[in-house]
Design goal:
The structure is a single chain. With about 240 residues, the protein is of the alpha/beta class. The chain is built from seven helices and 13 strands. β5 (about 45-55) and β6 form a beta hairpin. The radius of gyration is 20 Å and the shape is elongated.
């Protein structure tokens, strides 16, 4: 069943008014008709709805509030050195599917693209489409591009920070860390050129930062965050059970 995300202000009593690109999707792409059912999310609740009217907007009636939360109990934020547009778009799309909570693009010393080349509006559209496709309840958050020093200021606000670097082979026991109530996790991945030595020196001074090995092979910058997110998703859901 098709799923659409809205803001709370679009709900009036028992009627939801769908606007924007979703109207085109309902009318032209899906060719939906009156009385067809859709799922609508306001990021807190999911509603089973029936289509009442299709014009320049789509009005739907709430039939039932569903209890179908598929979000992870741990919040994983990926801070990723700026990479080329097509790579970033693919990483963002896959992170949404894997349940990532938030994505932070970071301008690092060896980033090969410029700040102005990152289109946050387009990335938000990808997040919305991927969230609907993967039947998520919430949209993955994405920040504006920040610089490396701004990232350092955020580290203390996380329970656990995982630092993926080829020079560090020490393994942390992620299951133990999660079991010990690490609910807010930050994953830091370098850009295509990797971390600069000075960036590494600054990072390893933080007590909540754990260097983590990604195995015997060297992973590309677009593969590493997906690998870590997959492991955290598996362990986090194991812990939930």
């Amino acid at each position: 069943m098709q799923r659409y995300f809205i803001e709370k202000k679009q709900i009036n009593n028992n009627i939801i008014t769908i606007t924007g690109d979703d109207v085109h999707h309902i009318k032209t792409v899906m060719r939906m008709r009156i009385n067809e059912k859709v799922l609508v999310c306001d990021e807190e609740k999911t509603y089973l709805c029936s289509i009442l009217n299709i014009t320049n907007t789509v009005e739907v009636e709430i039939l039932e509030t569903l209890d179908d939360n598929v979000e992870m109990d741990i919040n994983v934020t990926v801070a990723h050195g700026l990479v080329r547009r097509e790579k970033m778009e693919e990483v963002v799309r896959r992170l949404v599917e894997l349940g990532c909570y938030s994505y932070i693009p970071v301008n690092m010393t060896r980033s090969v693209v410029k700040h102005k080349e990152i289109n946050i509006e387009r990335l938000n559209k990808i997040i919305k489409e991927a969230s609907e496709q993967s039947q998520r309840n919430k949209l993955m958050k994405i920040s504006e591009v920040i610089n490396f020093n701004d990232l350092l200021k955020m580290i203390d606000s996380y329970d656990l920070v995982l630092f993926a670097h080829t020079l560090y082979k020490d393994q942390v026991n992620l299951f133990t860390e999660i079991k010990n109530k690490c609910k807010n996790i930050l994953v830091i991945v370098g850009p295509e050129g990797g971390f600069d030595d000075k960036e590494v020196e600054k990072l390893i001074k933080y007590s909540n930062l754990k260097p983590v090995s990604l195995g015997k092979r060297i992973l590309r910058t677009e593969t590493a965050p997906l690998y870590i997110m997959s492991v955290l998703g598996f362990l986090g859901e194991q812990y939930d059970n």
